[in-house]
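pinned: reference chain
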Amino acid sequence: MKNIRNFAIIAHVDHGKSTLADRMLEITKTVEHRLMQNQLLDSNPIERERGITIKLAPVRMIYKIPNHKFEDPNKSKIQNSNNQTDSEYILNLIDTPGHVDFSYEVNRSLAACEGAILVVDATQGVQAQTLSHFNQAKKLGLTIIPAINKIDINIAEVENTKKQLIDLLGFAESDLHYISAKNGTGVPELLQVVIDKIPPPKTEDRIPNTRALIFNSNFDPHLGAIAWIRMIDGQIKVRDRIKLLATNAETVAVEVGVFIPGRHDTGILEAGEVGYVVTNLKDLSLLTVGDTLTLSNQVTNNPLPGYKPITPVVFVGLYPVDGSQINTLREGLEKLKLSDSALTYMPEFSPALGNGFRVGLLGLLHADIVQERLEREFDLNLIASAPSVSYQIFTMNHELITINRAAALPDPSLINQIREPIIKLSIFVPEDYVGAVMQLCQNYRSEMLDMVYVNKLVNLTYKMPFAELVRQFFDNLKSVSSGYATLDYEIIGFETSDLVRLDVLIAGDKVDAFSQIVPRGRAVYIARDLVERLGKVIPRQQYEIIIQAAIGSKILARADIKPFRKDVIAKLSGGDQTRKDKLLKKQKKGKARMKRVGRIDIPQEAFLSILKI
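pinned: its structure tokens
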């Protein structure tokens, strides 16, 4: 085990994590040069197209160092490792996402490691997720190696970035490493530091039984559920009978191996190693991320701590355009949940959209990615309803009800108070844009908690209702800061607010998919914007369509979609006015009948437009 190093690469989005992983794969010759491509560990096409990492990706690298000497963390003197002239190390790397919506992936990765490389872009400096990931790694007691990336770019501000790492994160100048992940400058030296500073994995001698932490999983249609594990104690071999402690499920290890970066069958995994076990389980609910995997004949009484359960914070209704695809949608969500433990779903019915599912997610980007994956991987055409958050309702009978969609809000006469989730929002922005960002935050019902100047950056801390964040706050923040501002957030609790349900009526019929819970003071402005958007995307009909936004029976805003007009008197070449009036009255009577019995066909664009409010 002393020649094993388990580490992750953490950073803010687009700071060069995946590129650094590519260079490490090249230097260690894990992947042949002819097979190398950019973002090699980002296997999902969506990741490549968007240039972001969505899922954690483990890979095992074998690194040989001739005549290597390293400093034993337990001894003060320098010694040869194993007294060998040619040392071979097993480096288990986990590439992680950088976007705030996928922080749970980072937490799971860090729990399977002893150290982490903290990458900071020299052109952008310390950002919101840099600080968040640093604090998480520090909380877990990991060895953190700071690396300033992109030092070869002309606009790189290495000195400012160095000062931020020293002043804000508390690193010493001697701790910092300077690299260019793109051309490989400093990467071999960084691998040397990983070997020298990150401690090897430890095992608990007092626990003789086999224990492995399931930090991720995926589903193969032929092999069933595949558990991605970090071995803590003991060993697992192919054909061993294994047990999952959380669900008491027992099965046989069909295949055991490591990622290089694809699955490679080794037949055995020992303490300290990272790899996978093919369980052949077809019931996806039996395998849960964070569970302890052990041998059936060595069941331990000391399960691993696992992970804190992930609580979804944004809820979106997903409905198939073709109602016959509801079972395909259910199967798709079930399979996605196996590799995405933050995903939750439950069936629901909408009078306007039919059968669908209420899906719990971690943010708007997470919602967008899940919808795109369902449409691509399972050939579905989906409609997404307006995003919402969870609310706590205290009734007059002192009952506590938790809801996550506006249609579930009880009658106002039964409600004592409504409590909404509150977040602590951390924003990093260049000092030139501080005024515009502060004005934007005031418009979103936020309260300033702190403001800290760090070199040329300003760290603003706000308390804000989470519902405001999903109302296009991120897009507006990028707009007022010219794309330089970054944010991170955490939910800190619930607070009582004056909230009401805003309903949308189209041709007199309430469409529950458009209903929203909004602050009473801003209801009129939101209502006007809502009906204006819908008025632009709902197609014209042969009769007039009235769109209204209302609170109860009070109409706050209205938009009219004018009908197509056919000139029925064009065929008359002359004659008395009564002939024209007769045709016009007949046309008016027909339009009234169509308005009474006609059905409005609401296009998907109308539902998608609500996502942008």
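why pinned: The mean pLDDT is 83. The longest helix spans residues 577-597.
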